[in-house]
Amino acid sequence: MSFKADIKNNSTLWNYINGNNEMSILVDRWNYLSSLFDKSNYTLKVAFRDIHTNKWTPWEKFPGYGNNLFRRGKREGLYTTQDCGLEPAIDVHRSMLGNEIVIESDYQTYEENYEAAKIIGVILENKGFTPHYYYSGNKSLHIHVFIDWDCLKGVDLGVQDQLRIRFKGSIARFRKSFITWLREKMIMCWDTQLKKFDTDLIKDTHLIRCELSKNKLGFKTFLGYNHKDISFVPYICNENNMIYPSIGKIKLSCPHDINGLLEEFLEYLNNKDIKIRALRKNKKLSKYINTGPQKLRECVRMILSDDFKAVGDGTSRAMFILINEFRQVYGDTIAKELIYDWNSRMNNPINESEI
Q: What is the DSSP secondary structure assignment for residue 153, as one 8-state letter?
């Protein structure tokens, strides 16, 4: 595997990564990863991509003591030497933090990705989030958002009670569910879908290019906290122009209306529950219709078809037929459920009180 800068074949890249007293990618990236490791509750993982084969090394917990990160050396006197595989690494990818959201579009040109980043950036900033804008080093831009869990301290008691009941008092389960929902909302451009972003980043297991790691054109570099800070041309930092990339200080996000956001989240969960119950019910009813006693007449099965909606009238007579048929075949309890299901699929032409 060749994921390192080669001092023999490319001393310029090696020297660029090692840097000098004023700027060193080696030192700054290591310190940043160490900081993220602490913030991740010591769960941060990293991997390298081979610059020749485009294959990945296995994930490894940072800082690690395996073949890819730290390697224990020979004992020299009272000390044991250590070799850090991260030092000369070119392309390092890391896992996301538990409170982190990453947004990236994958359009063919930088200009298209620039426009997409500006649009989602305006939406996020207006809602009170603090995006961290990064140039990826190729044609795309990365937007990082870090949620401040302390913003939940000001949540209304009624909303707190609903969340406590919903997640049975588990803060960890709530945070995981909430951050996943937030990722999806942001990546879907807050339901507007004005621009397309990478939906794989909804998963917290997805690797992302680490800050100060090299892409095709240059190293991933910080641009600012406002969409106006994004450069309309790629801000390339590499060993050729000797412009060094920078890392932005992590600023936590507290949205303006956290209560409204959580109410929207609870509504989403409730609607999800309703859909799940409906699917389970339909599956159960379909089982009775498709695999139950085979006594339904063929003309009755025609009425059960969704195509019956196209008829537009005769629903009262059809329901009278279905009720009598269902009661004979399945009994009153199941017949009632089947009738409600059919009426729902026909867009509720008959009031429940009439049924």
A: G
Query: CB atoms < 10 A from the CB of 266, how many?
Result: 14
Report the run of H or E that residue 81 belongs to, with start and end.
Answer: strand 79-84
CA distance 110 to 130: 22
Q: 66, 70, 102: which is closest to 85 by C-alpha? A: 70
Residue bearing tokens 């389970």:
280
String of DSSP letters for 244-273 = PP--PPP-EE--TTHHHHHHHHHHHHHHHH
Q: Are 128 and 255 in contact (CB under 8 A)?
A: yes
Evaluate whether 269 touches 166 at the Cβ level (below 8 Å). Answer: yes
Distance of CA 46 to the CA centre of its chain: 18
| Model pLDDT for residues 10-19, shown as the tens digit of each residue | 788 888 988 8
CA dist 339 and 351 (Å) reads 12
Report pLDDT for 345.
Answer: 75
Q: What is the pTM of this model?
A: 0.74
Q: Which residue ranges make up each domain of the chain?
A: 1-95, 97-280, 292-355
Two structure tokens written together for 39:
């913030």
The backbone torsions φ and ψ at residue 155, rounded to the nearest 5 degrees and listed phi first, read -75, 140
Render 200-240 in DSSP notation, one character per residue. GGGSTT--EEPTT-B-SSSB-EEEESSGGGS-SS-----TT
Cα dist from 26 to 66, 88, 90, 182, 244, whole Å: 19, 7, 10, 33, 12
